[in-house]
Amino acid sequence: MRKSFFRLRKLMPAVSIGVLLIVGTAYAARLAAPVVNHDRGFLTPAPVPVAPKPVQDLLPVSSIKSPGLSPMPVSNTPKPAYNTPVISPPPAINMAAPQNNSDNSDNTIPTHMDPVQNPGGCSSCHSSGGGQKSCFNCHGTVKTSIREEARTDLESLRMKPSVHPFWTTGGLYARYQQKPQANPLAPRYVSCLDCHNPHEDTPANPTRGAMGYSAIGELDRAQAEYEICFRCHADSANKPAGAKNLRLLFNPMNPSYHPVELPGRNMQVPSLTKGYTTASTIKCTDCHGNSDPSGPKGPHGSDYAPILARQYNTTDGPESPEAYALCYGCHDRNSILGDQSFQAHKFHIVYEQASCHDCHTAHGSTTNSFLIQFDTSVVTNGSAGGPLMISYQAGKPYCYLSCHGADHGMTQISGPMGSMKWPW
Ligand code: HEC
Ligand code: HEC
Ligand code: HEC
Ligand code: HEC
Ligand code: HEC
Ligand code: HEC
Ligand code: HEC
Questions:
Q1: Whose CA is nearest to atom 19 of ligand 7?
Q2: Domain-wise residue ranges, the chain
Q3: What's the chain's average pLDDT?
């Protein structure tokens, strides 16, 4: 596998010269033939001569340890033209939020106000006085006659390895209560009511009428789902150590961000799949959700930290569809490992067994394009001197950095599994 990978690369110049010869001969023959006007449309444009790539200067194959890789499926679809990535200018500010969390244009009766769904009416919540437990009366694990009214069991999600800690919250908390997030000394909490308004939610819009937060402060009604999350994960005073202000990272003025607030700035993302395009927006809960597809949807709890909808290994190890299932849910694995954009994706991910997390952040970057944010526990400045940097510029893949102590030279990447030289 490994040998053929490098042999194929060595063969590339011969193959491209061959192709040039064939195309060139056909073209000359075509020109010699009498020109019939309507026929000219079939002529392909004159081939642009391509300088053959220099033969790769690779370590001898024998010196490369075989990682024992299973054969990798490679896409047969031709690569789209991908030269210099196209980054759009920053969007105009004050654009309308694309997701409307307040919308109930279909006039659905809110679930808990519907006598069919909730025959107990107001008193099913207002007489129990059991705080958040009143939600678990129906959304709990134990099924008694009244509890059978709701099909969704939120209580058992507390056993998941990664959770929103809503059951440690003692009371139900009122909507307009002063939030401990404003006071750095108060403990952080989260309750059902921070994300749900039980008078308003509908099956199509479970968070309808919940409060939110944006750059202008607290919002009585969130317009978009991310505004709900920003109450506690943005400017909040008492975030845990290491937690970032997500409002700053998802800001559409940044060089790159996952398109939660507005469509993204990179106009060429060839790996996008499952109907996603560069015009799409996504939600926090497309990534943060229940890892069990048959359980209740939403960012309540998951087998994968931090409350991830699918597996995502942030430490280095063998590549597999599962290891980066979160990303492969929207980015085609064949495209990424087929090097449709970054020419050394496969080299790093498959051969060096690097995690996406070594190079990419999943949220946004205030400094770098392409969601590049090197994991500084793996990637450090190189020892070679020169203009040290740990960033990436399109078309200038000079990384003066060091991964796991192995230096990248000016144009050379070397690691425990082998080395590679630019141009690839
Ligand atoms: C599914 C549970 C549930 C049902 C059913 C329910 N409520 Fe409530 N209600 C709540 C909770 C929880 C709060 C506290 C909300 C808050 O402060 O954010 C609340 C708050 C209120 C308040 C205080 C003002 C406010 O809006 O915060 C009133 C008044 C009220 N409910 C009336 C009713 C009436 C009348 C009905 C029946 C038509 C009803 N509720 C049905 C859960 C429920
Ligand atoms: C009397 C029973 C009952 C109580 C108490 C109750 N629910 Fe529900 N809830 C339901 C039913 C029935 C559904 C419909 C879906 C299902 O069966 O799980 C539902 C659905 C939901 C949904 C999904 C969106 C929707 O509108 O279909 C949310 C969110 C929700 N409940 C939140 C809460 C919260 C928060 C509380 C506590 C304040 C609460 N519920 C208390 C019966 C209840
Ligand atoms: C009322 C406050 C509040 C709101 C609103 C809120 N969260 Fe949280 N969230 C918490 C608390 C508290 C934790 C526990 C860790 C901490 O303190 O950050 C947490 C933890 C998390 C974690 C796990 C972090 C980790 O390091 O394990 C994720 C992911 C998360 N929230 C995503 C979201 C998303 C997505 C939303 C919006 C749909 C949201 N949160 C809304 C308070 C909130
Ligand atoms: C494309 C997938 C994706 C989207 C969209 C996304 N996250 Fe995350 N989030 C992750 C991953 C992966 C991690 C953990 C590893 C990392 O940081 O790269 C994470 C980490 C977190 C954490 C814990 C670390 C921290 O900085 O506090 C919180 C909280 C969180 N996300 C909340 C959110 C919120 C809120 C949104 C929406 C505004 C959101 N995420 C959107 C994938 C995503
Ligand atoms: C951090 C925010 C947050 C908290 C806290 C939270 N939820 Fe949710 N919940 C959501 C979001 C967002 C969705 C919608 C997910 C989707 O549609 O993909 C949801 C969906 C639901 C659903 C519908 C599930 C389904 O499969 O249709 C129910 C029921 C529900 N929540 C009940 C609760 C109850 C009860 C609590 C408290 C014990 C709670 N939630 C706490 C954010 C939250
Ligand atoms: C060694 C660093 C590195 C690793 C590891 C890495 N990437 Fe990248 N990735 C890059 C660079 C650099 C670019 C920008 C390429 C360019 O110039 O357009 C990029 C671009 C991308 C793009 C945008 C263009 C496209 O292909 O659609 C996606 C998506 C992407 N990477 C996903 C991933 C995923 C998923 C993983 C893990 C399975 C991963 N990357 C691992 C460095 C890396
Ligand atoms: C829910 C779908 C979804 C998931 C899951 C997802 N992405 Fe993306 N990603 C997108 C979309 C949509 C874009 C296009 C944004 C644009 O045009 O700038 C994108 C763009 C990117 C880019 C290019 C950004 C730029 O500005 O150049 C990178 C890199 C990337 N994703 C990496 C990842 C990684 C790594 C993961 C896993 C942690 C991941 N994505 C998970 C939807 C997703």
A1: 258
A2: 2-56, 111-132+169-251
A3: 74
